[in-house]
Amino acid sequence: MRYARVREGVFLARPNRFIAEVALEGAPTVCHVKNTGRCRELLVPGAKVWLAEADNPMRRTKFDLVAVQKGERLINMDAAAPNRAFGEFLAAGGVFERPDLVRPETVFGDSRFDFYVEAGERRAFLEVKGVTLEEDGAVLFPDAPTERGVKHLIGLTQAVGAGFEAYAVFVVQMADVRCFTPNRRTHPAFAEALERAHSAGVRVLAYDCAVTPESMEIGKPVNIVI
């Protein structure tokens, strides 16, 4: 997936979850933050960031904050990017070699999953989570409590019970990480739900990504420590 019209700036402040103040060519600019997570370790004053110009010229905020530099790492922090990149990966034969159908936003029971796939006789539901929190090469999810995430894991477990394949997919929005693990410190209930889902037959996948200021693509599988 790619962005058009990307510009470099310097992060100044985040007045609330939805907007940030960025110095763009020296001038303070208000932009939309496409990630409602805390991202405290990413959005620090003076951090180099990249903004993508919004498609709608009438929008109040002209730019979306899509990437940030953290030390040596370039991290995509657009919450919509994992689904876009993973959808391209699925369609190209990632996970399922020859999918007959890749359908986004599909309901099963009282859950809505990111993807439903048919490949030959295989039927699968997949839920995608973007990961931006990194500590000493390990990446963790979530960075804030997510009851919705727990509900998705319960729904995936129910799908397995109904005879479907089910996948919890963690798209790491950076490259070259050591491992993925659930964030027990921030949300122990999610970590426990992931353990239960895995034991019940939900398959857990994690991939890193090749990230540039203008793009993000699924990269290599990441070691998973549940």
If you had to describe this structure to a student in words, what would you say it looks like?
With 226 residues, the protein is an alpha+beta fold. The chain has two domains: 6-76, OB fold (Dihydrolipoamide Acetyltransferase, E2P) (Beta Barrel); 81-221, 3-Layer(aba) Sandwich (Trna Endonuclease, Chain: A, domain 1), CATH 3.40.1350. The chain is 17% helix and 46% strand. The strands form three sheets. The chain has a six-stranded mixed beta sheet. A five-stranded mixed barrel has the order 1-2-3-5-4. Strands 10-11-13 form a three-stranded mixed beta sheet. Helix 2 packs parallel to helix 3. The protein is globular. The mean pLDDT is 95.
How would you sum up this structure in a few lines?
This protein is an alpha+beta fold. It has helices spanning 81-91, 147-161, 188-199; strands spanning 6-16, 19-24, 27-33, 48-53, 63-70, 73-76, 101-108, 111-119, 122-131, 133-135, 138-141, 165-172, 179-182, 203-212, 215-221. It starts with 5 loop residues before the first strand and ends in a 5-residue tail after the last strand.
Shape: globular
SSE order, one letter for each helix or strand: EEEEEEHEEEEEHEEHEE
Structural class: alpha+beta
> Which architecture of the largest domain does the CATH hierarchy give at level 2?
3-Layer(aba) Sandwich
Radius of gyration: 18 Å
**Low-pLDDT segments, ≥5 res:** none
> At the first level of CATH, what is the class of the largest domain?
Alpha Beta
What number of domains? Answer: 2
Percent of residues in beta strands?
over 45%
Largest sheet: 6 strands, mixed
Through-space gap between termini:
29 Å
Mean pLDDT over the full residue set: 95
**Count of β-strands:** 15
The CATH topology of the largest domain: Trna Endonuclease, Chain: A, domain 1
Spatial strand order of the main sheet: 7-8-9-12-14-15
Q: How many H/I helices?
A: 3
Give the fraction of residues assigned to helices: 10-25%
